[in-house]
């Protein structure tokens, strides 16, 4: 009876959503209720509905991720992977690493031509670009922290895929802009291409994806990593030059890792360890900027921004040299975040001029940046918190849809260093530590983070954006703790980004012109770009108010557990 009632609720909600505009909510302030923030209103509502049905934060995280597979196909996924950071109300802290891994047939030089030149088209587009998906295994690894069974958590996504939903103008434009790419990389017809152009309000119905989700609902992990779905993935590989095998899929394992924890001005930061570079970079940037007592300066002033840029520069130089899958390298995390190391690293900082990137690492001309990931922040009324960032890597991943299964595959192999010194699609340069090896997890910038105050969740934050992820999380934390901005301003204030290479600093178009002018006088090269990331943040204040903020840069939305 309970399940039947649950299905009626979802069907009524989603049928309504097919024919009307979504109820997009950018900010809420509540008490004693669960809150979900994600990239799409229907996904957030799916998570909030699960909370109402007795689920906790981790149930909501799983349901929201499945829903994003349907309503946010450019990044929400079962064909990719991600990281989860959790803090329970009993003080337990944990992380799950369901990052993709390199197939058994992968090799260090697999993207080099006969002359030894890197072919980034092969690592970014088509079947050879695909790493072994980890998301579904990650959802099942989360299940031991949940209250509800998986067949209930996946049902909202099945309903969304089977019945369809009305797409927004932004989604229509994306599908139209990638139409030629979808046709190029897919032999079979997909749900994402039609004869005429997509427009706002059109229904996106994904029957094949619904059947894939039903197989997972019925058979569990085996419904994805074995049986029909696995066979469809391998058949898709054989249509091109893909190398993932049935054995690769069956042998995929989630890594449960010890959370990375460090103090920042009396707050405990809980974030992701390697193979996320984000946690280390975040620790380095926060600690280095604290050497200059950044809280003395005004938000987005030239002085504050310059300190933060230089912290970013040094952290990203270390990313290139030291970071990779900890199972394959000598993990130097303890050294990289130590005060002694960072104080020595900071000695070259000058308050009056830009540091040359060549002074902190070897200069290589990087590729143009491109980004697409997605983040979910959740807290339940019992005080359990979760931050999850997942990705297909590029926009719609490899552009390949598994024929008969209806979902996009990732292009995460590009996150390896395909040739030491050659930048990936986000401009991030890698070396030996991140070279391609079978079974290895590629380095990531994803930085799901929970900040604790007096031992309880205070800030739950994360964002998409490739290499801009750790710098956006960094700015969100500094905006809140040091500059005392409201949660809304901390998320939506103009952002900037620097990553060592290229030498330039990216700023959003509405960034203060006076700050830009002052930075240029100190020899900073400024590049104006349309937007940086889409941050999803929850702040729990000392009075117990839960403030959820969805980034104004997209269709992102907050949902609250119904009474």
Automatic annotation (TrEMBL):
InterPro entries: GGT_bact, GGT_lsub, GGT_peptidase, GGT_ssub_C, Ntn_hydrolases_N. Residues 1-17 form the signal peptide. The active site is at residue 373. It catalyses: glutathione + H2O = L-cysteinylglycine + L-glutamate; an S-substituted glutathione + H2O = an S-substituted L-cysteinylglycine + L-glutamate; an N-terminal (5-L-glutamyl)-[peptide] + an alpha-amino acid = 5-L-glutamyl amino acid + an N-terminal L-alpha-aminoacyl-[peptide]. L-glutamate binds at residues 99, 391-393, 415, 444-445, 466. Cleaved by autocatalysis into a large and a small subunit. Keywords: Acyltransferase, Glutathione biosynthesis, Hydrolase, Signal, Transferase, Zymogen. Its EC number is 2.3.2.2, 3.4.19.13. Gene3D superfamilies: 1.10.246.130, 3.60.20.40. The keyword Repressor does not apply. This enzyme consists of two polypeptide chains, which are synthesized in precursor form from a single polypeptide. Belongs to the gamma-glutamyltransferase family. This is Glutathione hydrolase proenzyme. It comes from Chryseobacterium taklimakanense.
């Amino acid at each position: 009876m309970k399940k039947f009632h649950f299905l009626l609720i979802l069907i009524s909600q989603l049928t309504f959503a097919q024919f009307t505009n979504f109820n997009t909510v950018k900010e809420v302030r509540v008490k004693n209720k669960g809150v979900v923030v994600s990239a799409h209103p229907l996904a957030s509502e799916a998570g909030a509905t699960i909370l109402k049905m007795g689920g906790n934060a981790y149930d909501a995280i799983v349901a929201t991720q499945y829903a994003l597979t349907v309503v946010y196909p450019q990044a929400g996924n079962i064909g990719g992977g991600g990281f989860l950071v959790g803090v329970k109300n009993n003080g337990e802290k944990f992380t799950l690493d369901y990052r993709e891994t390199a197939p058994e047939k992968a090799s260090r030089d697999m993207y080099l031509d006969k002359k030894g030149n890197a072919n980034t088209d092969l690592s970014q587009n088509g079947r050879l670009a695909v790493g072994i998906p980890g998301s579904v295994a990650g959802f099942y690894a989360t299940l031991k922290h949940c209250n509800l069974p998986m067949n209930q958590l996946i049902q909202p996504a099945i309903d969304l895929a089977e019945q369809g939903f009305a797409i927004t103008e932004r989604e229509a434009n994306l599908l139209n802009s990638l139409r030629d790419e979808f046709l190029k990389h897919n032999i079979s017809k997909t749900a994402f291409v039609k004869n005429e152009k997509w427009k706002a309000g059109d229904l996106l119905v994904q029957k094949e994806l619904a059947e894939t989700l039903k197989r997972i609902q019925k058979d569990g992990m085996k419904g994805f990593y074995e049986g029909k779905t696995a066979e469809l993935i391998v058949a898709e590989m054989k249509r091109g030059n893909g190398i993932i095998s049935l054995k690769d899929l069956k042998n995929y394992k989630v890594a449960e890792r010890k959370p990375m924890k460090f103090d920042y001005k009396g707050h405990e930061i809980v974030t992701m360890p390697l193979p996320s570079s984000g946690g280390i970079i975040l620790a380095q940037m926060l600690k280095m900027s604290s050497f200059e007592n950044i809280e003395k300066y005004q938000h987005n002033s030239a002085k504050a921004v310059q300190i933060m840029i230089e912290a970013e520069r040094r952290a990203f130089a270390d990313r290139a040299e030291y970071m990779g899958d900890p199972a394959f390298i000598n993990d130097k995390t303890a050294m990289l975040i130590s005060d002694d190391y960072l104080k020595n690293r900071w000695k070259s900082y000058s308050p009056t001029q830009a540091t040359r990137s060549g002074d902190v690492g070897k200069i290589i001309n990087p590729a143009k940046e491109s980004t697409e990931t997605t983040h979910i922040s959740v807290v339940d009324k019992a005080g359990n918190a979760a931050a999850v960032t997942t990705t297909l890597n590029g926009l719609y991943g490899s552009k390949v849809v598994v024929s008969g299964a209806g979902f996009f595959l990732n292009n995460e192999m590009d996150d390896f260093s395909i040739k030491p010194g050659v930048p990936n699609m986000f401009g991030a340069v890698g070396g030996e530590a991140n070279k391609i090896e079978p079974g290895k997890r590629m380095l990531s910038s994803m930085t799901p983070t929970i900040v604790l105050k007096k031992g309880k969740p205070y800030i739950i934050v994360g964002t998409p954006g490739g290499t801009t992820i750790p710098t956006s999380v960094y700015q969100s934390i500094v905006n809140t703790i040091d500059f005392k901005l409201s949660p809304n301003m901390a998320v939506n204030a103009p952002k900037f980004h620097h990553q060592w290479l290229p030498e330039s600093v990216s700023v959003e178009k509405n960034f203060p012109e006076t700050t830009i002018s002052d930075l240029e006088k100190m020899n900073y090269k400024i590049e104006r770009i349309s937007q940086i990331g889409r941050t999803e943040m929850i702040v729990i204040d000392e009075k117990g108010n839960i403030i959820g903020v969805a980034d104004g840069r997209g269709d992102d939305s907050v949902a609250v557990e119904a009474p």
